[in-house]
Amino acid sequence: MATGSGKTRVVIALVDLLLRAKRVQRILFLADRRELVKQAMREFKSYLPSETFGRIEGGDIPDAGRIHFGTYPSMMQAYTKLSPGYYDLIVADESHRSIYNRYKSIFERFDALQLGLTATPTDFIDHNTFQLFDCEDGIPTFNYSLEQAIADKHLVNYRVLEAQTSFQISGIQAGQLPLPLQQQIREEGLDPEEINFEGTDIERKVTNTGTNNAIIREFMEKCRKDVLGIPAKSIIFAVSHAHANRLYKSFNKLYPEYQRRGFAEIIDSHMERADETLDDFKFKDMPRVAISVDMLDTGIDVPAIQTLIFAKPVFSRVKFWQMIGRGTRLYKDPRTHSEKKDFLIIDCWNNFSYFQLNPEGETDHPTEPLPVRLFRLRLEKWQLVSGRDEDANPVILDMQNMLAELPQENINVSPHWDEIHTFLSQWPNLEETMLRHLSRTIAPLLRYYWAMPLSEIQFRIFIERISIAWLKARTEETERLAEKARAHVEALPENIKEIKAVSEKRAWVLSEGFWSHLDLARLDDLQNTFAPLMRFRQPAQRDIVELKLPDQMARRRWVIYGPAGEGAFAESYREEVEAHIRRLIEDIPGLAKLKRGESLNEEDIEEISHALNQADLFITEDILREVYQQPAANLPDFIRHILGLAKLPTWEEKIKEAFDQFIAEHGYMSASQLNFLRGVRAAVLRHAKVTYEQLHRPPLSRIGTVEDMFPPEEIDEIIAFANSLIDEAA
Q: What is the b/e burial string over 635-660, where b = at least 16 CB atoms within 10 angstroms of the residue's CB?
């Protein structure tokens, strides 16, 4: 069920029904965080006041209570003390893949009914989770989507304001800054020559006080406010605890009068009173703003929230929608009795562009599982090694070992098991059709491969990329990846016995001599020696560069439409224009003709143009092109769209049409070339600039090597064509 649509309330009703029917006697409710356990207990006590409850803490099972609550880790410490019949119903909150991977033994222990709850869309729930609850893949017992909940008025929708500062868009390059700012950098004891950061480096490699100040000012100016003009309950999602601290300091500096009242507080796992502060945020007037790192991203129920600010990039679609869910709850202000109609999201990192420009593509093609990626890299390596007449047996053996670890009983693997068994005894010849079959049919089965921990498989992927770059004689890429591989090995702590056992080899890998004369055997040995040890690797401490440069908001889709400089946010202006045009239908003959489906002459268009270009909206064709971001549309096109008679083409439709035309102009292309172009089109739909290097990275590299499919001049033509579409939309 969608976040905020009442999963816990439904469970309480079901528990009440089963208890009254004497179908169950003792119930266990599990959640992944203590705050969610407390939240669920409050709701159960509110709806079932006559029942008895108990809390599982530190591995101790309460003696009293028919309904027990605990976190998964607490239950892992206690479940072996109980008989299989101790619980009659187990409710598992937030049932994603971690339930199966980490806590499966709890569910296997008890002979009980099992009910899993999650707000994760079905496309992103792991196969094993469906299996755990006896459901078919992708088909939960019950599904209630966010769209349906909004349509049924059980949740509210959101509005988005995209706002980015100049430095977030363009980065911070000291050489491009005005001389006074360059001088300021020198006065702060920094070398301007070393200040060269992309926008995406902010709060990862560099922090800038002015950027954080600009974000806080934008929030305070644009956020939803109560009847007194004070910002309503809000969450700011920060990159890290250090970033949260810096945002908090910006509040203190810019709005000390608010902060004296405890207006904004940091709520994350680093804070000693995080639980108490969260209770204050939920139930008291102050704090109004919670600056959070991960702790408030999921599961927290605060209906009064009216503004979310994404001050960090989000790359998980599951987490993205859970974060949005913090604002979807219905709410009525107890003081004014006004109801929340919708809520505002201020997106400072283009998250909506990343996730919503092509939502179907994201849903249909979720992130490639790492074992699948490793297998496909090895397929590519096999192809390259075979082409050089080198010994291909080691890479074939690696692929066979992966296939041998697949679970034969798996419902998706078993139909292919006879074929896999043949591969294990007799590897096929290197042919294009067989490569395609292994990549498209067999490789996806590796998502059920669990033989390696995450840290190991990530390192193996890394070394296979080095092998492929070396085989392709890409010296710069090989050297760049080699530096990172050395850093991974160097981060292994020397005082662990497993690492002491390979200390000489570790010293050899960290030396220049190891990398100066590479070969496949050396890289394979590196991979097989150190990949299993990566579970001990310690993350490198990165010193962040701290700047104090002024920054300001530079992008929020503001349009100037009036002769005296009148302006508005594009979305607000568009709503006013559409309402105004609908009101004028009966007053302007030309609009009435359009409504009846009749064509217009020049006089009709002139009449409509004159009627619309009046105070206070000053509607013109050029303004509409900017507001709707449709540079090729004319005035009748916009009016037909507003009246619901025709639809302006979406970004996806325009890109598809452009690529169809490009393909038609190159009618000689083969099936593999067309498939490669579809991959390029997917990148354009994500608004991603296409580079020569990108054409050699997955997912495009899995389709084939671009040089093998296109001559150099056509590669340049494809890159220029794709980027021209991005530039046109900018």
A: bbbbbbbbeeeeebeeebebbeebbe
The C-alpha atoms of residue 223 and residue 343 are separated, in whole angstroms, by 9
Q: DSSP per residue over 191-252, as a string?
A: -GGG-EE-GGGBTTTEEEHHHHHHHHHHHHHHS-B-TTS-B-SEEEE-SSHHHHHHHHHHHH
Sheet with 289-292: list strands edge to edge. Answer: 157-162, 342-347, 307-310, 234-237, 289-292, 264-267
- Mean pLDDT of the region 199-211: 67
Query: φ, ψ for residue 218 (rounded to 5)?
Result: -60, -45
Q: How many CA atoms lie within 13 A of 240 on its CB side?
A: 10
Pair 263, 251: CB distance under 8 Å: yes
How far is the C-alpha of 588 from the C-alpha of 708, rounded, in Å? 60
Phi-psi region of 161 (alpha: psi -120 to 50; beta: other; left: phi over 0): beta
Sign of torsion over alpha carbons 258, 243, 215, 651: negative
Q: According to the model, what pLDDT value does residue 365 have?
A: 32
Element of type H or E holding 52: none
User: If residue 555 lies in a helix (H) or strand (E), which one and from where to where?
Assistant: strand 553-555
Q: Contact at 8 Å (CB) between 458 and 534?
A: yes
| Residue of 283, 242, 245, 240 whose CA lies nearest to 264 | 245
What Cα–Cα distance (Å) separates residue 664 from each residue in 408, 409, 706, 707, 718? 46, 47, 20, 21, 14
Query: For residues 250 and 275, is the Cβ–Cβ distance under 8 A?
Result: no
The H or E element spanning position 31 is strand 27-31
Q: Which burial class, exposed, middle or buried, applies to 338 when counting CB atoms under 10 A from its CB (0-12, 13-18, 19+)?
A: exposed
Strand 289-292 relative to strand 264-267: parallel, antiparallel, unpaired?
A: parallel
Sign of CA dihedral 501, 504, 510, 514: negative
The label of the residue with tokens 């084939």 reads: 704
CB atoms near residue 462 (< 10 Å)? 17
Please tell me the least confidently modeled range out of 178-192, 271-285, 332-346, 610-624: 178-192
Which tokens go with 78?
Answer: 């206690």
Q: What does the pLDDT look like over 361-410, one tens digit per residue?
A: 222 334 467 888 899 999 999 999 987 877 889 999 999 999 999 878 76
Q: Which residues contact 212 (CB under 8 A, 6 or more apart)?
A: 243, 246, 247, 249, 250
Residue 569's SS3 state is: strand
Evaluate whether 7 touches 1 at the Cβ level (below 8 Å): yes
Q: Give the residue among 683, 673, 680 at the shortest CA–CA distance from 707.
A: 673
Residue 696's SS3 state is: helix
> With contact defined as beta carbons under 8 Å apart, do 586 and 596 qualify?
no
Ranges assigned E (strand) in 298-437: 307-310, 342-347
* Contact partners, residue 469, CB within 8 Å, separation at least 6: 477, 478, 481
Question: pLDDT tier at 571 (50, 70, 90 boundaries)?
Answer: confident
Q: Does residue 501 or residue 275 have the better pLDDT?
A: 501
Strands (E), 67-122: 67-71, 89-92, 113-116
Joined together, the tokens standing for residue 525 give 């040995």
**Distance, C-alpha 651 to centroid of its chain:** 21
How many CA atoms within 13 Å lie on the side-chain side of 548? 10
Q: Which residues pair with 116 in a beta bridge?
A: 92
Whole-number pLDDT of residue 170: 59
Residue 642 has a pLDDT of 87
What is the spatial distance between Cα 306 and Cα 232, in angstroms, rounded to a whole number?
Answer: 6
Chain-centroid distance of CA 513 in Å reads 41
- What is residue 340's predicted lDDT score, i.e. its pLDDT? 92
pLDDT bucket at 572, cuts 50 / 70 / 90: confident
Q: What is the pLDDT of residues 660-711, one digit of tens each?
A: 888 888 877 887 788 888 888 887 876 667 888 778 877 777 777 888 888 8
* H/E element, 367: none
Kindly state the tokens that stand for 454.
């995450």
Q: How far apart are CA 80 and CA 75, in angstroms?
A: 9
